[in-house]
Amino acid sequence: MARIESPNRSFTGTGPGGVHFEDGVAETDDPAVISYCQGAGYTVDGETYTDTPPAARTVDVPDPRFVQDVPDTAPLRDAAVDPQPGDVPPSNAGLANPHGPLVVAPGIGAPPVVENPDGDGLVAATEVRQEPPARSASKATWVDYAVSQGMPREDAEAATRDQLAEQYSRKENG
Fold first, then answer.
1. Which tens digit of pLDDT belongs to each residue from 110-134?
2. Are 145 and 117 in contact (CB under 8 A)?
3. Is residue 82 within 8 Å of residue 94, measured between CB atoms?
4. What percent of the chain has pLDDT over 90?
């Protein structure tokens, strides 16, 4: 059994790993609790470690979904935090810490995703085979087509009808 002394010598109650402290002192044979206490400033068997063992060094990582102050005002958007149609967001995007273990990215080079024409969620743009509209179709029709091909809606709306027709007619024809 290892004798553990709390940094607070008057502490009485439950400590790390459920170990009960009485007047700042507890005993345990749990190696995980002993290791934690050694790295957290407790005195273990009469020794207090001044250099925290690497395994016990921890840093709180802020969850970027809840960070309020962002010094860079670049017009970037994190697809994991704020997924939009056309993104290939990681699994659990917007639901869990995007840098944590519950979010898995689908991989680099994945095709853009679009609304399924059947109305059943998102699908890869390459799965939606759609002929481009007639060159004389309305701008709204061309915008919808460009978005279905993976172009961000903002970019499609910023372009003229003729620019979209030129880009996607050329793309389809060669």
1. 556 666 666 666 666 666 667 888 8
2. no
3. yes
4. 17
Q: 25-28 and 2-5: which strand pairing?
A: antiparallel
Residue pair 93/79 in contact by the 8 Å Cβ criterion: yes
Kindly list the distances between the CA atom of residue 14 and the CA atoms of 8, 22, 23, 36, in Å, as whole numbers in the listed order: 13, 9, 11, 15
CA distances from 117 to 12, 61, 142, 163, 170 (A): 63, 40, 16, 24, 23
Please tell me what DSSP assigns to residue 157. H
Is the sign of the CA dihedral 23, 24, 29, 33 positive or negative?
positive
Nearest residue to 1 via CA among 42, 39, 41, 44? 44
> 10 Å Cβ neighbour count for 57?
9
pTM score > 0.70 for this model?
A: no
